[in-house]
Amino acid sequence: MRIFGIRWEWPPVFDKMREASLRWFGHCGKQCLCEFKLSHLGKDQVLHDPKIVGLADAVEERINVIVNSGRIYRCTWRRNPSSSLANDCITAMAEGLNSTLYNHFLVLLWRNGDQTYLSGADMTADSEWESFQSVIKRICKESGHTSEKLSDSVSCSSWEFLINSRYHKQYSKSYPISGFSETSIDQQGLYSPGSSMGTSDSGGSSFYAELVTETLDTLHTVYESLKLDNLRKRDLGLLVVLLCDIAAFLREDCYLDHYIRDFPCLSKGHEVSLTSTSKRIPPSLFRWLESCLKHGCSSASISHLPSLIFRDGSSVVNWGRKIVSFYSLLCGAELSGKRLSSGVSCAIASGSFNTPEELTVLSMVGERVGLQQLDLLPAGVSLPLRDALDKCRDSPPIDWPAAAYVLLGREDLAFSHLAYSRKSVELEPHMNVNMTCMSAPYMLNLHPVTIPSSISDTIQSEDNKLEDVDSVEGYVADGMEHIFNSGIQLRYGRDLRLNEVRRLLCSARPVVIQTPVNPTASDQDLQQAQLWQLAQRTTALPFGRGAFTLATTCTLLTEALMVPKLILAGRLPAQQNATVNLDPNVRNVQELKSWPEFHNAVAAGLRLAPPQGKMSRTWILYNKPEEPSVVHAGLLLALGLHGHLRVLTITDIYQYYSQEHESTTVGLMLGLAASYRGTMQPAISKSLYVHIPSRHPSSFPELELPTLLQSAALLSVGLLYEGSAHPQTMQILLGEIGRRSGGDNVLEREGYAVAAGFSLGLVALGRGEDAPGFVDSLVDRLFLYIGGKEPQNERSHLFVPSIDELNRSAGQIMDGTAVNVDVTAPGATIALALMFLKTESELVYSRLSVPQTHFDLHYVRPDFIMLRVIARNMIMWSRVHASEEWIQSQIPEVIQNGVKSLGDTMSDTDEINADAFVQAYVHIVVGACISLGLRYAGSRDGNLQELLYKYALYFLNEIKPVSVSSVAFPKGLSRYIDRGSLETCLHLIVLSLCVVMAGSGHLQTFKLLKYLRGRNSADGHLSFGNQMAVSLAIGFLFIGGGKQTFSTSKSSIAALLITLYPRLPTGPNDNRCHLQAFRHLYVLATEARWVQTVDVDSGLPVYCPLEVTVRETEHYAETSFYEVTPCILPERAVLKAVRVCGPRYWSQVINHIPEEKPWSSGDKGDALSSGILYVKRKVGACSYVDDPAGCQSLLSRAMHKVFGLTRLRASAASRDCQDGDMVDQLISTFSSNPSLISFAQLCCDPNWNSRSDIDFQEFCLQVLFECVSKDRPALLQVYLSLYTTIGSMVDRVTSSSSNLQDTLFISSLKIALAYNNSLLSKRSTSSKEGIVQSTFLGSVQKRVEEILSSSLEFQKDFSEYMKYGRWPTEDYGRRASTLLSWYVQWYNVPSPFQVKRALDKIKAINTSSSVPLLHLLFPTTDVTALCEINRVGFCSRG
């Protein structure tokens, strides 16, 4: 109802006031409806006459009270009773009674006590329940005195005044109230039940009879629901007393018998009559649950369920409805929408299911029932649900919500689901609440607070600081101090190879120069020569360091970027670490360091990986120096390669260009192109074309731009238009291949043509003949640039330059129809390779032929042959195989025969032909090795590693014999080829090997790289290019600290080919044939396929075995192999599934759909994209870090040893405290569950042991062992509950000292036994046993039956009960009534009047034994009880 616009479901009572005392009277007109006392109003107490002058700002249960002093008090009132039992009963009556009956109930509720009750500010829960009881008793009283009309009442209560008031009439017109009408209010304004149903006394009598009957049914529903809550036993005891009174008043003997069976202490004062006319049998949830388990949901009678439980929206029996729905689904109920075939509704969470147990788990999630709620259930009732959770725990479906995994105890799957769900951001608050709801309360503190390793590992420790023991400088910031985080260190364990890599790639310390102790003048010249050689190596180190530290640390946006120093000086350990610098009079040191400083800054910038995924524009400009520098230029390139330059505005870009700084312009153009890769962004495109003078209009002022700027601009255009096949851009770039670069440096035109070729290949990357327009003419022109004939194509006019272009093309690299193929061939070959990448084009493949005759060998340069081999294999991608036979198949027969005949004295091969054969052979082999490196990039193929390693040793032995090789390779090639070419080929093979083994840290390959790096000038040709190759190879082998690897997508292969372009520079500033900044584009080919397992309980990275399955390909069938995390997974295109295996962690399977798609860390739909896989360790097993061999995980042997010690300790007079601590220490080693640890500590407590018998102690230890070994901590409560129940029954029988006040545990135990029997009947079809041992439950059943048969007076009590419905009187004591209630509950004996009716029918048949007939009438009653009934029946007849 509503009073003053507020709905009052319960008489409101203020319970929070300030100081002093004051009263508030609620009036309607002149009638006082209710009175509230405000106490302790503080300073207002000094007022002579404090008054409330206003009420304001009412919000739900709070309102402002304004007194005459001007002060305002915020007051709280109760809309609902503080007694949960009273509140549930009133709510049940609101939901169960019809509107007329409920409204009359409210009338009586308000009339009971009126002013006195409503003004009680100190109302307690007990008094509220007593008030509710008085209302119900008043209803019963009124039903017995209906002859006296209610209208004769003299008193006029506030409720009656309100109903008769003008306010109510006006309010009723606006807000009609169901159940009230004008006819239901008599002339005096009193609500009369007879006025709406008739004026006779019989009408009032039937009304009250209906009200009392429905009240009994409604409150009985509350009673049955409370029986499923262990924490409401006190409320249950209060409610059953009231129900007994109501049932006795209504002469509902079946109801009364039902309550006395549950609470035998109520037998005093109540007697069941056998002459009752009522045939109503009370509903029983326990009876229905047991029947459902025994016979299935379809066979369980719906009459056993209260009618209110089928009503949607009923809150008071919501708990009972949930349990009924769970049992219904578990026993095979059919689901139709939200309604089950059993008649109840149920919310089902989203997810797939194949078994009833899985559907039950989803319903528990949908109804928000977690482990905390399961603990409220009686042990037997919770057992089937816990068993369903246990059966689904091993391998639940992968599409379940996170809360379902938490309910199963699979927090690893829950965290993975939340981390990789597409809607995790939006659903995170709801998911966190739901997960907390599903967790047990004692497990909430175990939810780990994890910190991403990329953030936590930036907290540097002193152990990560690199110190030189021979140097006085101490700590040196080398840009790699952050690399030793927890994940990377776990990857290599106690291996020190990362420390060695850090030492090899450090350029921030002076290098060691070995000289005599007393140097002479000639020794100083030797020092300078040696220092110059070492400077070549030092300037190449940033290439490898950038790869080694790629994306391994986070950006601190409040700090500037720290770039490690690039020191070219040396130190003399023999002379107390004296420093030696390069002589500036001999060489220009600053010019030597210009580009190396650029690469050093690139390496420093590549290590940044912002956790937000986006760099701040403010931070970039914050690091911008006042004067342009190569350091900031390198940073721009690094940020661009990570895709972070998109935050720059157009004004920022042109401000950089306006500085006219060469390195800054190169870094900015390449960085912008990489950030806007494949987007064709118009503004960026215009800024790039400005740096290509050949594309300027004739009216454009002439610009003198360095060739390397033009080369960088060309490649940037290719990156910007990558894969677009833009016709106009392709036409422009094709012309640039044959055009001489601007400027006076003619020697750099080859690099310009190569950049144009790469750019053209990127624009038409992998499009082949699918590119729109003039593909045939374009291919013909490219083959012309390679060295073919002039194409005779009718569409060749498309490439005829205009007059304006001819005026600007005076530098065209053509004399008439002749083409300078020495300049154009590399670029054109690369363009064809990228255009037809993976297209399997036979036409282009055949035209890119390798020389097959002696004449062709002299016509084509050897390095061009190598490019052709690479291009042919990139086109025929699927034909590339990792075998030595495939490499030999790349070599034409004429070359193989020529090489074989080198050692033949009878051969007529001259010196010139021999040189040609050897040159071609070497470059073809190297080209094949590079092709293999590109084809199997990042695959870590063991066979290919051995093959490439073998070829590397072969070339190394040709330079200088270092090992004995049994491979039948041609010998003595060094006589026909210069050493520099052999060195270049060796380092290209090593570089290809490291591309294959990228991120693996392969030890054998690393040893080879260490050897190559440590060689001096006598061992090999130590050029800058070779040192750069070694540095890059080391970086590739440990790329990203082992967290990154290379992809084989088209875009990645193109980026790798640009990086591996087989023309190595001769010096730090050599950009003639290939711009050195292009060597950093390998970043575009990397992908983080790293996966690291994290223990969900501790939040720490751990070792864990994985079974990885790759799909079937044309080369191999579907294959599975094993890895130990942290590890690198195969590419997305072949990865099919990943399974956590091994005995120490719970299994989980992550299915993967193989697809040609980059492995992006931002793809939240992929469970492996973030690199974190949460796992859960099984109880009883240690981690692989603590126990690598598994010797410490022998839990059973250790526990049995503890059992023996405990047994001996319990029987001894004195106890050894040290032995007593073994149990809890052992449990804490294998489990982090607080309940198990606390129980183990209790078992070790001497005081507890002294108060308990040895059998119970051993039982506790055995239960503890089973819970730990099977990882079922919830079983501890179930076992102890069942065991202690039997013990209490024994105590009750023997000494009457038990605290058992009810027999509800009997029903719970019967449900557990029914479920066990159902499992035993299904054992033939399922090998999965129940979570509780069936032998234990069988022994419990046997023990209960022994207790029930031990009473001597039982037969007499049972006879009295069956004959007369009489329970044992007080003279026999409560023990007799308790035993009888146990018996009738255990054997499911029907009520006495039911038995009397059955016996009356059977006696008419005149049979000798009534047991078979009784069994037909009472099929659920045990035969033992039927025999007793038969005995009682025949005795009475006799």
Automatic annotation (TrEMBL):
Gene3D superfamilies found in the cross-reference section: Leucine-rich Repeat Variant (1.25.10.10)
Q: For the Anaphase-promoting complex subunit 1 N-terminal domain, which residue ranges apply?
A: 57-135
Domain (Anaphase-promoting complex subunit 1 middle): residue spans on this chain: 150-414
Domain Anaphase-promoting complex subunit 1 beta-sandwich positions = 1091-1160
Q: Which residues form the Anaphase-promoting complex subunit 1 C-terminal domain?
A: 1225-1390
Q: Which UniProt keywords apply?
A: Cell cycle, Cell division, Mitosis, Repeat
Q: Which protein family is it in?
A: Belongs to the APC1 family.
* Entry-linked PANTHER family: ANAPHASE-PROMOTING COMPLEX SUBUNIT 1, MEIOTIC CHECKPOINT REGULATOR TSG24 FAMILY MEMBER
Q: What's the protein here called?
A: Anaphase-promoting complex subunit 1
Query: What is the originating organism of this protein?
Result: Solanum tuberosum
